[in-house]
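User: Hand in any protein.

Assistant:
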Amino acid sequence: MAIPILWENPFSFKLEKPTFISNYFSSLGEDEKFVLKECGINEEISQTLFNYARFLKVLDLSDIKYNVKQWIDVPKKSYTRIINLLIKIFVDSGATLHGVTIINLALDALLDVIQSQQLRRVEIRRATKLHGIISAL
């Protein structure tokens, strides 16, 4: 019972070195692992006991961005690719999200998440470029 609760919103914890992020990448195929290598992530990704992405309930992109930056030091362009890969993992896992928070990030990266989920709450703060996103839904 503790595993699902701990993994509902793991990005909300402000850790100095959030090593839990690599657990999400255990389900990746070879092509996606190659994307990680292109981003400068060369660590060995081992199989995990659970599909942790499936337990995710809260998707706060600001928290994800913060934790990815704490987890690994890569060029700025690579952070976006890693975050997009994490979003793809969350969508593909079939996680049932209860909320999504978007703060100052590109909204098109979230289109798949919003379209594929029945969210109870979507919160958008300080977004200035919403053109096209509403009509795309």
Summary: The chain has a mean pLDDT of 78.
